[in-house]
Design a protein that fits this description.
Elements (H helix, E strand, L loop, with lengths): L1 E5 L6 E5 L5 E4 L2 H6 L3 E5 L3 E3 L7 E3 L7 E4 L8 E5 L5 E6 L13 E4 L5
Parallel strand pairs: 3-10
Antiparallel strand pairs: 1-2, 2-5, 4-9, 6-7, 7-8, 8-9
Length: 115
């Protein structure tokens, strides 16, 4: 299935393709503050509908994940990184996807704070 999403103001828009079987809630210092529910997909399954430079990047800790956010409204719709097998991946914040029932998606909790 193909989904569309964006930041709050629409400055950063994307499409993502796949099945949202579950989402992950992480308690690391960044994710806990953002409140994201992340859906992991191959990076090539996500396509930006706005110019890449519309999103700013925040790096912290080991600088392995590009936390992308809108510099206008501050919303963080996705992050980019590398899966353990070396493939490029995207972590889509499903709270930024239009028209889905968040309550119907199982959420798994990940202890990122302990890493």
């Amino acid at each position: 299935m193909k989904y569309q999403g964006s930041c709050h103001c629409g400055n950063v828009k994307f499409e993502a393709e796949g099945e949202i079987a579950s989402a992950m809630s992480c308690n690391c210092s960044m994710c806990q503050r953002k409140g994201s529910l992340m859906w992991f997909i191959p990076r090539d399954a996500m396509h930006l509908l706005t110019p890449e430079e519309n999103a700013s990047t925040y790096l912290f800790n080991k600088h392995l994940i590009k936390h992308r956010f809108c510099p206008v409204c501050g919303t963080a719709p996705y992050s980019e990184g590398t899966a353990p097998n070396g493939d490029a991946m995207a972590a889509i914040n499903i709270r930024c996807i239009e028209g889905i029932d968040l309550e119907s998606i199982p959420v798994h909790h990940y202890d990122g704070r302990s890493l």
